[in-house]
Design goal:
Blueprint: H1 3-16, E1 51-54, E2 60-63, H2 73-87, H3 92-99, H4 102-116
Antiparallel strand pairs: 1-2
Length: 123
C-alpha cells in the first residue's frame, strides 16, 4: 500500500472506527463506532434514546448521555448510507445545506430505524 493510501486509511479508521486515541473514548461503550461523535439528529426528542434534564440554572436541555444507538456499527453505517444517497450529486456546501433541514434529518433517522431498529441496548 502506498503511503498516501495508508495516511488516508488512518484518517478513515480514526473517524469511522473505535477511536481509541480520543481522550474521551469510550464515552458510551468499548468498541463503539465514533463516526457520529456529534449526533446529526441532536436533539432528536426521542424519549427512548434520551431525555430532557434540568441544568444548574433551572433551564432544560436535551440529554442523550445514555444513548448508544448512533454508535452501533450497523446504525452508524445505515446513517452514512442514507446521507450519501441523499447527497451523492451535490457539492459539499449544498449537501450541508440539505442536511441542515431538520425534517430531512428526522426522515433519515426514521429510515434507519425501519432498517435496523431503534434498540438502545448494547445487545
Amino acid at each position: 500500500m502506498i503511503e498516501l493510501a495508508k495516511k488516508h486509511l488512518k484518517k478513515v479508521l480514526r473517524v469511522c472506527g473505535a477511536n481509541r486515541n480520543c481522550q474521551y473514548y469510550p464515552c458510551h461503550f468499548d468498541g463503539q463506532v465514533c463516526l457520529w461523535c456529534y449526533c446529526p439528529f441532536y436533539p432528536c426528542g426521542d424519549e427512548e434514546l434520551g431525555e430532557m434534564i434540568k441544568r444548574k440554572d433551572g433551564t432544560e436541555i436535551w440529554s442523550c448521555m445514555n444513548c448508544v444507538w448512533v454508535h452501533k456499527p450497523d446504525v452508524a453505517c445505515e446513517i452514512l448510507k442514507e446521507i450519501l444517497e441523499l447527497t451523492k450529486d451535490k457539492e459539499i456546501e449544498e449537501a450541508i445545506e440539505v442536511l441542515n433541514n431538520r425534517d430531512i434529518l428526522m426522515k433519515i433517522k426514521e429510515n434507519v430505524e425501519k432498517k435496523v431498529g431503534k434498540n438502545n441496548n448494547l445487545e
